[in-house]
Specification:
Blueprint (H helix, E strand, L loop, with lengths): L2 H24 L7 E5 L5 H9 L4 E4 L2 H10 L6 E4 L8 H7 L2 E5 L2 H14 L3 E7 L19 H10 L3 E8 L11 H18 L5 E3 L6 H7 L3 E4 L1 H4 L7
Parallel strand pairs: 1-2, 1-8, 2-3, 3-4, 4-5, 5-6, 6-7
Helix pairs in contact: 1-8, 3-4, 4-5, 5-6, 7-8
Bound molecules: pyridoxal-5'-phosphate.
């Protein structure tokens, strides 16, 4: 094994152990939680190693980096998640490789994703990104729709050709009433998810939890955790 492969294998084993313990503590089955490895800022070679270690879901947050990486890994069977703030001028590119966009947070983006998906003849999974710290009608600092904007956005995705409403995503807020209260934030997300599922029963994905708070997310009921640093290492610079 190369050094990098050894390192990633060890990190992955540790994360796997954390997820398994969190599931056990919550009385949940391990297979109820899917690990998505966030490979942003790391090279395609790392994605290839991770695939060799059994990873099947990866996530990226910038189209400029993600598009060439996905192209370099086109021979691997991977599900690509897009988790970053998305400008409409990047939609066409993102739709060419992403299987799921987790950061759907406004109506304008829904129409743009829909026409792009129809054009390439693909069905794109969509998660609505919830900004738990955003007031009514506002958007979050890091993207996301306020909780009271979910119903309208969900209806728009459900009615849009080429799109499939899969569920919700959140990033635990750094400020506001949920700052440093990850478990409370994820519990709130689960309440919003129950309400969403009443109208859209198949929209049952709940993407929450990162390297520092995946246990809270699993305890609350998340179906997907997005882990970067704990698998790949601390990112150089911003990301
Ligand atoms: C970077 C990122 C993650 C992973 O964060 P880590 O702290 O590195 O695990 C998860 N979700 C989103 C939206 C991200 O941008």
């Amino acid at each position: 094994m190369t050094d990098r492969r050894t390192e990633l294998a060890a990190n992955l084993a540790q994360v796997e152990e954390r997820i398994a313990s969190a599931c056990a503590a919550a009385g949940r089955k391990r297979e109820e939680v899917t690990l998505i490895v966030v490979t942003k800022t790391y090279p395609a070679d790392d994605v290839r190693i991770l695939h060799g270690l059994g990873v099947r879901h990866v996530a990226e947050n910038r189209d400029q980096d993600a598009a060439p990486k996905a192209a370099a890994c086109a021979d691997l069977s991977l599900t690509w998640h897009f988790v970053g703030q998305l400008q409409t001028n990047k939609v066409r590119s993102v739709v060419s490789y992403a299987d799921v966009v987790q950061s759907v947070d406004r109506i304008k983006l829904v129409s743009s994703l829909s026409s792009a998906a129809v054009r390439v003849g693909r069905e794109l999974g969509c998660l609505l990104q919830v900004a738990l710290d955003a007031g009514s009608g506002e958007r979050g600092d890091r993207g996301g729709v306020s909780p009271d904007g979910i119903d309208e956005l969900a209806a728009a995705v459900a009615a849009a050709p080429g799109l499939r409403l899969d569920g919700l995503m959140t990033v635990a807020p750094l400020a506001g009433p949920y700052a440093d209260r990850q478990r409370a934030a994820f519990d709130r997300l689960m309440e919003i998810s129950s309400r969403l599922r009443a109208d859209h029963p198949t929209a049952n994905m709940v993407s929450a939890g990162m390297s520092s708070d995946l246990e809270d997310a699993v305890a609350a009921g998340a179906t997907h955790v997005r882990v970067g640093t704990a698998v790949l290492g601390v990112r150089p610079g911003l990301g």
